[in-house]
Amino acid sequence: MTNIKLTYHKGTDISNRREACNRKTQSSTWKKAMTDEIYNAIRWKERKDASSIILEHIDKNYWTVDMEKYEMQLSLSLEKNKDVYIKKMETLTKQPFLYDEITCYLTTLARCPYNREKWLIRLWYKAQDPVRVFLHEILHFQFHQRYRDNPKVKLLSKEQFEDLKESLTFLLNIEFKEYIEFPDYGYPQHQELRKQLEDYRLSQPENERDFEKLIDYGCDLLSSWEK
Question: Who's near 96: CB < 8 A, 6+ residues apart?
């Protein structure tokens, strides 16, 4: 049984904002969640300088937030059917879920990255659909765990690997639709790949749908688009 631990750590919150501003891909997405003043003050600053600016911003704007209350609310949401989620994820990906405990760090920025080596997820403290966020991230865990060494996946570039990994989350809208409150829309740049993958998935009889074959199909698509 996997344990889900929710906690707030200010240092982790700070690093989430700093990474959001300095990541080359998708940084414009997170810019919308911050004021221009803060975004421009942080972007490409040295770690120490950026962290000081972010700390001041968090202390000024979030000091009244009762993080313990949000920890309790989100914990109740995630714990309710967690064994069902994980069992379904194992069945979907044909891969045992190997994580004994996952730590969800609450963050004041609506950006929810993960670290599969440290078994952690960052979760926006005001997330309206925490279950979908959790499932989105553990699907990434499963993809990394078993399929990053798939022969076709190994031929992908780093960017193609990320495109495929993110696009596969359309599966949440099919396999977990009864548990999520809002669809997983993905990033704008992945919409065509998501649609092609979904069309392929739905064209197959339910008893013949196979995660690895879906991945192979996605790899073939990405390779053909490069030509």
Answer: 90
The residue count of the chain comes to: 227
pTM of structure = 0.90
Which of 28-32, 135-139, 188-192, 204-208 bottoms out in mean pLDDT, i.e. has the lowest?
Answer: 28-32
Nearest C-alpha neighbor of 41 from the set 29, 25, 57: 57
Q: Tokens standing for 141?
A: 């865990």
What residue ranges do the domains of the chain occupy? 3-89+97-129, 148-226
Q: What is the pLDDT of residues 136-191, one digit of tens each?
A: 999 999 999 989 999 999 999 999 999 999 999 999 999 999 999 999 999 999 99
